[in-house]
Write a structure and sequence with these properties.
Largest sheet: none
CATH topology of one domain: Serine Threonine Protein Phosphatase 5, Tetratricopeptide repeat
Structural class: mainly alpha
Distance between the termini: 102 Å
CATH class of one domain: Mainly Alpha
Low-confidence stretches: 229-244, 354-370, 411-417
Length: 736
């Protein structure tokens, strides 16, 4: 379709005028009108991105700048705008990644000073990334800038020290000092590290521990005696690949080279050696894990994720692999995947300490947490959690702190409380919070409920957003008989959990509230909504049943019928015909009958019979209601069908019971009484048959049906009654 240049120019002019007057909405409209004519015009798209940014529409502005960046891959300007918007949106990891892309672009254009500026921006946004500092150090050294190069190596030393890796920290600090011998800060740092190394060291981070273990195991293989492979096995090994493979001596030499390069921070050389090992079929977990860490350190996050993912199932490297994968995905801006792996880290640590009977419950806690993060999509919350976890696991003495936390969590779990390491990590003063909750637990055991509640309030004051503290307070209030307060607390917790997207936990809080007030319609209705959201329809139907039954008990038959009807509609819409669904239909029919709505009650029972032809209870009430509504002919036909059903199943006693119950309820229905009498005769119960026929005769006489009355008396006489003379006289009086 041809583009209209006049429309295009008019739109640009009006767009520029609106932008000059800061009429952002109008400018957006005009620039979009221009792009409708010429979609590939980068200048107009840049103008549109600018006004979108000025009006605070950051997501839309990013999309436009990305279009421009794709159209102009050699231009750093749109990428720079993207990075600055990401900073405004507080997406530090994404902004940092964008600045690294900008730096690479400048480097290809031989603009080294601009590349250094971009790397510095990335380092400011993510100060603990050693890879960025390494790139800066290399660039400064190449440029002869010794002081800045030394400063970058010292920055890396501090990062490694914080991570608990004193070997790498010392190497980096010594490198800084060798580049700039006058660097007093580097010299002081080296001296501090050397002193602390002589003292007892706290446990390094799990990644550092795993890396040392992997390097140690690889080094050990070099000392083992390697038995030569049998000739036929060696021949098969070579035939499996057309290209020649290395022999064991060459493999050992390559392992030694890789280990030495990694230990001395020659990242590129170590990666090359490990890749050669992988290419030759050496696919040990240690090789994959180390390669993944090296790729992580050199910013090749996608490559790192590939190899680290292959070692998550290894007990020796699972914890560290998940942690490193979390760092990879966070750097890539994929926070959902990052949180998934960070949660696995805390789960592994947590599961190592719980008793077998607590494992399933703890697993469900982590499943709920994962669902909560996935459903909420709260990037800020995810980043807060991942940052807190990284700090927790890289601080000095982290293992001692884990043991302390787990001790307090264990006291909370003894009575079924749900608590996890993942929830505790981000809490300031977590040790004090858990100590208060543990004390509260102890006071509860001693039945000092007031003191227990005070400890809970102390925990809440320290960590207002820590839900387990509020939940423990609610439990204590309930134990103290302060039911309304406890129920109100559970309702608040449920609403807060919903706001966080944690539906399973919200469900648990509503259930706790209902334990205190089972007839609360509002809480029960909210619980039903949550169950439906989770697709747990049969559980929702069970709640409809409980809700309606409660209203029946209070004599609110109309409201009960409404609730039962809602449940029936839900079951029908979900095509569920479970026992609970059938019970709901029965309850609906019963509620309508009890409120005097016999017609709709009959309709409800007929629907049940249509869906479940063998439902004897529904069939019985259909007959009963038909008699009640003055439809005896229809009732007798349905009754006959029910009696045949009992006959086919060899259950004559049920047929008799039904007939007797109906006859007692409707003694003036001659057809019903006659059917009862015939049933007695067939069963050989002549005395009962005579009694029933006697009542039938009286009904006929009362209705003036002398012929029918006479026929009934003759049937009585055929049964040889004890007062046959009286029946003979009665027959003569009738004159039939």
């Amino acid at each position: 379709m041809p583009s209209n240049k006049l429309v295009f120019q008019d739109a640009i002019k009006k767009g520029h005028n609106a932008a000059w007057d800061r009429q952002w909405a109008k400018a957006v409209t005009e620039y979009r009108r221009a792009l409708a004519e010429f979609p590939d015009d980068a200048n107009v798209r840049t103008s549109l991105a600018h006004v979108l940014e000025e009006s605070g529409q950051f997501e839309s502005a990013l999309r436009e700048y990305h279009h421009v960046a794709e159209a102009q891959p050699r231009d750093a300007a749109p990428l720079t705008r993207i990075a600055e918007i990401q900073v405004k949106m507080q997406h530090a990891a994404e902004a940092s990644a964008t600045y690294l892309t900008i730096a690479d672009l400048y480097l290809k254009q031989q603009l080294k000073n601009k590349a250094i500026e971009a790397w510095n921006r990335a380092a400011q946004l993510e100060p603990d990334r050693t890879d960025v500092h390494q790139r800066l150090a290399d660039m400064y050294e190449q440029s002869g800038q010794r002081a800045p190069a030394a400063a970058e190596h010292l920055a890396m030393a501090r990062i490694y020290s914080k991570r608990g890796d004193k070997t790498k920290a010392l190497n980096s600090a010594q490198k800084a000092l060798s580049i700039n011998p006058r660097d007093d800060a580097a010299r002081q740092f080296v001296e501090e590290l050397e002193r602390s190394t002589a003292a007892t060291e706290s446990a390094p981070s799990p990644v550092v521990q795993a890396e040392k273990q992997a390097l140690s195991r690889l080094a050990e293989t070099l000392l083992e005696d390697q038995a030569p492979l049998p000739k036929e096995v060696e021949q098969e090994r070579r035939q499996a690949d057309a290209r020649p493979r290395m022999n064991q001596l060459e493999i050992d030499a390559l392992i030694a080279r890789a280990v030495d390069a990694q230990m001395h921070h020659r990242v590129g050389e170590a990666i090359e050696a490990y890749r050669k090992l992988m290419d030759d079929g050496v696919s040990r977990s240690e090789v994959k894990f180390n390669l993944g860490l090296l790729y992580l350190e050199s910013m090749r996050y996608d490559d790192a994720a590939i190899f680290l993912s292959e070692t998550t199932g290894d007990k020796s490297y699972g914890l560290a692999s998940h942690f490193a994968l979390g760092q990879c995905y966070r750097a890539l801006g994929k926070m959902d995947q990052a949180v998934e792996h960070f949660l696995q880290v805390t789960k592994i640590v947590d599961m190592s300490s719980v008793r077998r009977e607590q494992a399933d419950e703890l697993i469900s806690v982590y499943e709920e947490l994962a669902d909560s993060y996935a459903a909420k999509g709260d990037r800020e919350r995810a980043e807060t959690f991942s940052n807190a976890l990284e700090k927790f696991l890289t601080d000095k003495g982290w293992e001692d702190k884990v043991n302390q936390v787990q001790y307090h969590l264990e006291t909370m779990r003894t009575e079924g409380g749900q608590a996890s390491l993942a929830e505790v990590i981000g809490i300031p003063d977590s040790d004090k919070v858990l100590e208060a909750l543990a004390l509260a637990q102890e006071y509860v055991r001693r039945e000092k409920l007031w003191a227990a509640s005070e400890e809970c309030y102390r925990a809440i004051e320290l960590a207002p957003n820590y839900l387990p503290a509020h939940a423990r307070l609610a439990e204590i209030l309930a134990k103290a008989g302060r039911t309304d307060e406890a129920r109100g607390k559970y309702e608040t917790l449920a609403e807060l959990s919903l706001a966080r997207g944690d539906i399973p936990r919200a469900e648990g809080f509503y259930r706790n509230a209902l334990k205190l007030a089972g007839d609360d319609v509002n809480d029960r209705s909210k619980l039903i909504d949550l169950l439906i959201q989770q697709g747990r329809i049969d559980d929702a139907l069970e709640q409809y049943l409980i809700l309606g039954d409660g209203q029946v008990r209070s004599g609110q038959f109309g409201k009960a019928a409404e609730r039962f009807a809602e449940g029936v509609r839900l079951a029908a819409g979900s095509k569920i015909n479970s026992p609970t669904a059938i019970t709901l239909r029965h309850r609906l029919a019963e509620a309508r009958a009890r409120q005097g709505d016999f017609k709709n009650a009959l309709t409800a029972y007929q629907e049940i019979r249509q869906q479940s032809p063998d439902d004897e209870r529904a069939h019985f009430y259909i007959v009963d209601l038909e008699f009640r509504l003055g439809q005896p002919d229809t009732a007798l036909l349905d009754l006959e069908e029910l009696l045949k059903h009992y006959q086919s199943r060899g259950e004559p006693q049920k047929a008799t019971a039904v007939l007797e119950a109906l006859a007692q309820s409707y003694p003036n229905e001659a057809g019903l009484t006659n059917r009862l009498a015939q049933n007695y005769i067939a069963a050989g119960a002549n005395d009962k048959a005579i009694t029933a026929l006697d009542s039938l005769g009286e009904l006929y006489m009362g209705a003036g049906q002398k012929s029918a009355a006479a026929a009934t008396i003759r049937q009585i006489l055929s049964l040889n009654p004890s007062r046959a003379d009286d029946y003979e006289k009665l027959l003569e009086q009738i004159g039939e």
